[in-house]
Amino acid sequence: MLTLLLSSLLFMNGQVLPSEPVNPPKPYGAIPSERQLKWHEMDAYCLIHYTPTTFQNKEWGYGDASPKVFNPTNFDANQIANAAASAGFKGLISVAKHHDGFCLWPTATTTYSVASSPWEQGKGDMVKDFMTATHANKMKFGVYLSAWDRNDTRYGTAAYAEAYRAQLTELMSNYGELFTSWHDGANGGDGYYGGLNEKRTIDRNTYYAWEEKTWPIVRKLQPMAMIFSDVGPDMRWVGNEKGFAGETSWATFTPEGLDGKKAVPGSVNEKTLTSGVRNGAYWIPAECDVPQRPGWFYHAEQDAQVKTPDQLFEIYLKSVGRGANMNLGLAPMPSGQLHENDVKSLAAFGKKVRKTFENNLAQGAQIKASTIRGNAVKDYGTQFLLDEDRYSYWATNDAEHQATLDIKLKGKQTFDIVQIRENIKLGQRLDSVIVEHKVNGQWKLLAKATSIGANRLMKLENTITTDELRMHLFAPVAITLSDFGLYKEFNEPFAFEHTGLKKMNANQYIPAVFTESAKAIDHNEQTFASVPAYEGGFIFEIKDDVDGFGYLPRQDGQTAGIATKYKIYTSDNNQQWKLLKEGEFSNIKANPILQQIVFDQATKAKYIKFVPTETLTKNVFTVAEFELYSK
Q1: How far apart are CA 392 and CA 407, in angstroms?
Q2: What domains can you pick out in the chain, each with its CATH number?
């Protein structure tokens, strides 16, 4: 009788049960810290660009704007925060200081701040306003502090580096618990610098003493704040501003510097930023930053180019859905609120994500594994794949690095997204996954993926209906899978009500003729002209009033010949020329989008000339498309 009882206890539901507890798998490679786990759980958040640059209609401020221009007529931090919350974002980051050097809080380190502006009679604190609104909308708050300062006359000296750390200390001390301290690699170049109007360079490897003096401020005052830069140490730049992580996207990473030097912000080998490094030395996952509009700052001419909910959803799938986090840039208007198009798109995107993922169509499925760790069903069985706990998991034995899951759904289901997660507390273990579905009694490939990690969303080419799936998993160690889900993308009609600049047609102007000119006016973004950069510029004969000019840089992922500065002239006789507009294409290397130059008033001249005065490659200029605009 005793033998029969023991046999019953050792065999249940078709599985042999262990007589002793089974140890969990050991962690594999670099693993996330507690603050990194909390960050992964956020999925997505926003970054708010709003400085005097907004009032100048520029992408990067030169640092010369008077504080008097910063005077929003209807600033509403809650309207901005509420719009972000409606999209399901979990946090907001205030750009407390951008490259123009203007501080949105009343800092003791410089007079170039809100304290010198007419806004709130110089008594306001916009960082605090954003913090209050963020918390009121149940999101986490963070700050961005540009290391480059184009206004401060001390920039490049030891005195500025100390002032920068003092600014960081103020922000880390006075705005509650922060989820991130955000820094980018833009450092050094031309600027106002207190009226000197010159170019300055710094040694990025030593100037900020990041590890020795600067990062420790964050660690001491905000121990749970994720430090962002292109090299980490907590999260890295994904290497582009499209918002896309790599199809293969490892959270592990080994930063490599340039010219054999140590990697520091602004000086890193960018080749592995997008993909990460398999078995990298550190857990430094990617953050995918992308503006909601073409640019990071508000430009009225871009009101018609706000990303649609479908475009945002694609970014979500290729960022959050590849184990990274999504950081969407918001750009308030000079008045101090988001444009109605931005608000409308955010709300519709939030609804799309919520409706898509509100019901896991795999719930109720029977999942049979080819193996279960130690036959310990209670501790490592497949039931944990459907319990909505990202840290409970099904596991294999240490010696079993390949496994199969046979999934019998609760009736036929129609879906187009397959989700799986690993328990990243034990590292990023899986190398690849293959998903099959049964068609006429035969198993057919449905989807495949590498680098699973914190989250993987596999978007199918077509919607399918089935009740049987099979998944094959491959890893160099024991497998620890935590979640499995099937979802159908939610869709509904969406359209903006907007007006904007209109592209002039071929009957309204005669384009410039130059070597390879056809490639610059062929309405094909994938072709581009490459010509010697020369002061003669590119001349267009115009037949109607012109309100703006467009330059689209090459779109093949290369940067050679891209223009960074320009001048535009007009003439009535093609001989005497008058300067109409000049400026820089800020951030164009990282974000090579269409550059639209809007004139203060329509020009009625007969000729217009575009001159690229500085390019990323000396003596070479490249252009995918030229455009002229009218209202």
Answers
A1: 19
A2: 37-357 (3.20.20.80), 359-487 (2.60.120.260), 502-630 (2.60.120.260)
